[in-house]
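Progress note, sequence design subtask.
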């Protein structure tokens, strides 16, 4: 096909996607494979849809990584059970509440409680934590503590949790089985469906740059996000950890992660999409570039300094320092791209395809 016709086709596809046309699997694969010259066009389209659907302000969610104990053995993750060189910690209930209060003081309205899969935090303990955070800070609560029984999810919701993040990680059953020994992809999806059904604002997402991953698998990831009608999408690059079986598998491809993120915005329109910490770790400009390619959320890490470096999922994680320093640093960064922070809860807006947000 002559170059000009090929170019026109790609531009046409991006324009249609920007206008709200549903993307088929083949379209998505095409967008993920476009020549590098077209990336700015793709990112600008996603940025436009982000502007129309969720506005220009950047929502903040404060993360507390309250335990680095994990009973799983995911091949990619530094918290995996078999990583015996990791110094493990569990934050006490009072430490978690004190950290939540710090988040509240900075004006950030939502907290994300994240950990390895750690059954030390029983249903009762997690519920008590949720109740105390709601009562003592009134923060909106997101949980990111892995796969739990349906009863647990129900109890967490009754206790006052509002949102749940559980990335499906990869849409490839084979890759999932290899990367997460002993875990079942169907179960993960069932957890996500249950969370959504219970009324949690539900987040899923993937890692980009996994060994054996293809554009076709990434397209399936995007379709999983769409089919689940997920409210939040965590799309981040895989970064190899030296203490895991995937040590040495370098991934320096920022571009492909940004493409997946941009297509996610075009496909899902009004979702909340963080510019992930992993993006900021992969490249100094990664977070800002993501915010200009469809992302609208940033999740600064408020874990106390004594624990932060021990939440060692992958090396070189950003957001070191005290809460107020982190916030002012982010504020300065956002100003450089003409954006501001919004100290608001930032639920996903009511379904509003093709239109302007309300
Ligand atoms: N244990 C919970 C779970 O797995 O859902 C929550 C904590 S886990 C550390 C949070 C996320 O970290 C995972 O969803 C995964 O995508 C991400 N992660 C783990 N290892 C990573 C790596 N090496 N590079 C990039 N992201 C990674
Ligand atoms: Fe554990 Fe989550 Fe890391 Fe897997 S990704 S080892 S479940 S903390």
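Output:
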């Amino acid at each position: 096909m002559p170059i000009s016709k090929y170019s026109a086709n790609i531009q046409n596809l991006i324009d249609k996607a920007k206008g709200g046309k549903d993307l088929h699997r083949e379209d998505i694969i095409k967008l993920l494979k476009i020549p590098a010259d077209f990336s700015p066009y793709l990112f600008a389209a996603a940025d436009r849809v982000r502007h129309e659907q969720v506005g220009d302000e950047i929502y903040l969610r404060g993360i507390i990584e309250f335990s680095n104990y994990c009973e799983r053995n995911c091949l990619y993750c530094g918290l995996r059970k078999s990583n015996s060189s990791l110094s493990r910690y569990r934050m006490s209930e009072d430490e978690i509440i004190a950290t939540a209060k710090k988040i509240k003081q900075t004006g950030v309205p939502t907290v994300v409680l994240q950990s390895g899969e750690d059954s030390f935090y029983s249903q009762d303990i997690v519920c008590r934590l949720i109740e105390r955070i709601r009562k003592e800070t009134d923060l909106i609560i997101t949980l990111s503590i892995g796969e739990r029984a349906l009863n647990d999810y129900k109890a967490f919701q009754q206790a006052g949790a509002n949102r749940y993040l559980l990335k499906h990680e990869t849409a490839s059953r084979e890759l999932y089985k290899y990367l997460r020994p002993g875990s079942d992809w169907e179960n993960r999806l069932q957890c996500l469906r249950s969370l959504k059904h219970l009324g949690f604002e539900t987040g899923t997402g993937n890692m980009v740059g996994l060994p054996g991953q293809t554009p076709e698998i990434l397209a399936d990831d995007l379709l999983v996000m769409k089919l689940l009608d997920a409210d939040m999408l965590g799309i981040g690059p895989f970064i190899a950890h030296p203490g895991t079986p995937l040590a040495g598998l370098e991934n320096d491809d920022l571009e492909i992660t940004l493409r997946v993120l941009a297509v996610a915005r075009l496909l899902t329109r009004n979702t909340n999409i963080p510019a992930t910490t992993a993006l900021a770790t992969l490249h100094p400009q990664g977070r800002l570039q993501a915010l200009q390619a469809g992302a609208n959320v940033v999740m600064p890490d408020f874990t106390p300094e004594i624990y932060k470096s021990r939440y060692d999922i992958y090396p070189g994680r950003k957001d070191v320092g005290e809460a107020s320093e982190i916030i002012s640093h982010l504020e300065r960064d956002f100003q450089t791209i003409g954006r501001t922070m919004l100290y608001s809860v930032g639920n996903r807006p009511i379904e509003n395809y093709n239109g302007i947000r309300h």
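The two ends are 43 Å apart (CA to CA). Work on this subtask will continue into the next period as scheduled.
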